[in-house]
Amino acid sequence: MNFRRIMAETRTGLSRNMSMVVSIVLVTFISLTFVGAAVLLQMQISSMKTFWYDKAQVAIYLCSDSSSADQCPNGAVTDDERQAIEERLDSDLYSQYVDQYYYEDQQQAYENFKEQFADNQALSFVTQDQLWSTYWVNLQDPNDAAQAAVIIDGFTGMAGVDQVQDQKAYLDQIFAVLNVGSLTALSIAGLMLVAAILLITTTIRLSAFSRRRELGIMRLVGASNFFIQTPFVLEGVVSAFIGSVLASAALAAVVKFFVQGYLQSAMPYTAFISLHSVWPVFPIVIGVGVVLSALASAFAIRRYLRV
Predict the structure, then answer these.
(1) Residues 225 and 288 placed together within one structural domain of the fold
(2) Rounded to two decimals, what is the model's pTM?
């Protein structure tokens, strides 16, 4: 009987404060969407790091006719200089850090460039002679910066070498930008969650004020604090639950239609998160919404009844 009465009181409160309920749903939806987006972005960054760091290479760019005289005073690389580079890569000193390496001449570099930038206007401004012939070096441990440093130090300034670059350094810059975006989304989510908590607290207190006569009668007939407080807590929980479910649905739609649907087809050579890999995030989002709303509602009604 008490349970039915509690549920009836909850339905009454929700119907009387529909505009406030909608506000809680929207604020919870937006804030938890930002929370989930920040978590998904971190998962995406982790997935991309695993995918790209394993493929990160050290590039030994060889001198060409278009290289500067400061870097390549003797002009384009010769066959003897190329042989000396390969001998050094195969030497005991450097082979312990090298998993494998391969040579890409200017023609191959140009073909790869045309394939990668087929729809880019930059293709019309680049010629084969402007590209480097390159030794691409795969390290034993791509995540070990010390191994890349050994290769860079060992081949920089060598005859026939224009410059040596670690691709992982470029990836670190990209991931640093993505991490800033993730932290920004998380900061906005935190502010929105604070706003949601304040809104839930205000809504519950207004709901209790509008039913102050009923609450006074319930106290006079001996109703317990638990019986009085529970409907108000449930109002906040139900509203936040709806908002958190909507947030989870929005995140699932982003992963399915934007990440897997658009990005996966636009960037087929990159690892992206899937709906299967991120589904554990959704119960967390819903749980955060429900727990925060329950705590905020319980705090608000207790403060009101105490007054």
Answers:
(1) yes
(2) 0.65
Q: What is the maximum alpha-carbon separation in the chain? A: 101
Whole-angstrom distance, CA of residue 195 vs CA of residue 289: 13
> By residue range, what is the domain housing residue 255?
3-52+172-306
Residues 66 and 20 in one domain: no
The HSE-up count of residue 139 (CA atoms within 13 Å, CB side) is 23
Name, in order, each residue with C-beta under 8 angstroms of 114's C-beta and a sequence gap of 6 or more: 123
Q: pLDDT in tens for each of the 307 residues of the chain?
A: 466 666 666 676 666 677 777 888 888 898 888 888 888 888 888 887 777 766 678 999 999 888 888 888 888 899 999 999 999 999 999 999 998 898 998 888 888 878 766 666 667 777 787 788 999 998 888 777 888 899 999 999 899 999 998 888 777 787 888 888 878 877 887 887 888 888 888 877 777 676 667 666 666 666 566 666 777 778 778 888 999 999 999 999 999 998 888 887 777 667 788 888 788 889 999 998 899 888 888 887 776 665 4
Q: Among 140, 168, 196, where does a domain finish? A: 168
Looking at the structure, tell me whether residues 278 and 180 fall in a common domain.
yes
Q: Residue 234 in contact with residue 226, Cβ under 8 Å?
A: no
The answer to whether residues 153 and 176 belong to one domain is no
Positive/negative CA dihedral, 187, 189, 190, 195: positive
Same domain membership, residue 267 and residue 178? yes
Domain end marker among 142, 168, 194: 168
